[in-house]
Amino acid sequence: xxxxxxxxxxxxxxxxxxxxxxxxxxxxxxxxxxxxxxxxxxxxxxxxxxxxxxxxxxxxxxxxxxxxxxxxxxxxxxxxxxxxxxxxxxxxxxxxxxxxxxxxxxxxxxxxxxxxxxxxxxxxxx
Length: 126
What we know:
Elements: E1 11-14, E2 18-23, E3 35-40, H1 42-52, E4 57-64, H2 68-79, E5 83-89, E6 100-103
Parallel strand pairs: 1-4, 2-6, 4-5
Antiparallel strand pairs: 2-3
């Protein structure tokens, strides 16, 4: 494989950004009233590995203009040292564009450990 030696970025990845909320303290979704919010996508999770190695990474995506969720996503990408570029799409009224929200468990329950967000704890601690 030939790699380009003078590339500006080590990785440029298109993605659709959204947020995931998960209950705190390992609660099932239907029993919780407190949630942890993360900006995420599968592609940016991979891109984070590259950026944490000190290499330049850019995400290509779209944002809802003047959205506080868009600001949250941009701030999260910046905290992971990921540059971003994307069109600012006007919301377009009450039935217009929104950023995707996913609600997931903490990785326990019927689907078993490893689904949703996992936290390194010993089973004896639960």
